[in-house]
Amino acid sequence: MKKLLALLLTMVMAVTVLTGCGQNKQKDSAESTSTANSEVAESKEDKGSGAATTTDKKDYKIALITMDSIDQHWVNLNAGAQEEAKKLGVTVTYMAPNTKDDALQIEQVNNAVSAGNKVIIVAANGPDAITSALKEAVAAGVKIIYVDSPANMDAEATFSTDNKAAGKLAGETMLEELKAKGTTSGKIGIISVNAATQSTVDRTEGFAEAFKGTDFELLPVQFGEGDAAKSQAIAENYITQGVVGMFGGNEGSTTGAGNAIKAANSKVVVVGFDKSDAILGLIDDGYILATMAQNPDKMGSEAVKAAVDVLEGKSLGGKVTDTGVTVIKKK
User: Does residue 215 carry a pLDDT above 90?
Assistant: First the structure.
């Protein structure tokens, strides 16, 4: 009997040990599975994070070349381009010359190609001078996008003001003011940059259209190369000729005309183009009636977006986008 009890007791203990071991193995297996799942999840998170980081920064090199780096118009255009570049994670190198000069701009185009830029965003000084350099860039595999002023060569896209329409709006704005003052005839002076820059040529043509069929006489266009001091000298000469109005075709032309009116304390009506602190101050002080403010920051940002699209294989078909103008007067 005692032997039988001892045997039963031994069997119970064995079963208990085996059961416990089985439970421990299940527990260990569950813990192992949990750990493995956790590691897989962490691995997925790390991969996801890494993917987000690589899309944040793209190894795209884009050059921006404007007519010069001094005018506020170009400063604002570059600011818009750099802001968009930061959003898209690309590099835009601003390579504008210090002054409007065809040779210097051509040199910057060549430098941009040598530096390995795959897209050049450019505002051409004139339609022809820069064309050969741009064709050589295209032959080297570089894509061209225009801002503000195109050259006589096809590009991926163009972002600019409809300059003829904006020039006509400037003329209509002046004509409305002259009529409000009871002036229905007289001489009108026009100050522009040069005879080659297509954007300002178009503005002058549009401005002239507004005066067709009126008794006003538009004097021959005078060129100040966009320099405020030269433009002021031209404007002072216009004042001595008894003009009733003056049109400035760009920032320097407009600033020069406004400064001449201020110096002479004249009542000649001035309407200009572009926006700068100097022009806004002259408007507030009553020396300039209005300016056609372009949207250079939009030109810059849209051009950078287009550059990235081109680099990613998208075709833009040479599309031309009007970035618009706003008439700014004294508040």
Answer: yes
Residues 198, 164: contact at Cβ < 8 Å?
no
Give the CA distances from residue 177 to residues 89, 211, 266, 284, in Å, rounded to whole numbers and listed in that order: 47, 13, 15, 16
* 241 Cβ neighbours under 8 A, 6+ residues apart: 187, 189, 219
The answer to whether the CB of 161 falls within 8 A of the CB of 296 is no
| Closest C-alpha to 106, from 119, 97, 115 | 97
β partners of residue 292: 273, 327
Q: Is the pLDDT of residue 192 over 90?
A: yes
Q: Rounding to the nearest 10 degrees, give the CA dihedral for residues 71, 280, 286, 182.
A: 80
pTM for the whole structure: 0.73
**Over the stretch 281-315, which tens digit does the pLDDT of each residue have?**
999 999 999 999 999 999 999 999 999 999 999 99
What is d(CA 252, CA 256) in angstroms, rounded to the nearest whole number?
6
Cα separation, 271 vs 245, in Å, equals: 8
**Cβ contact 273:248 at 8 Å:** yes
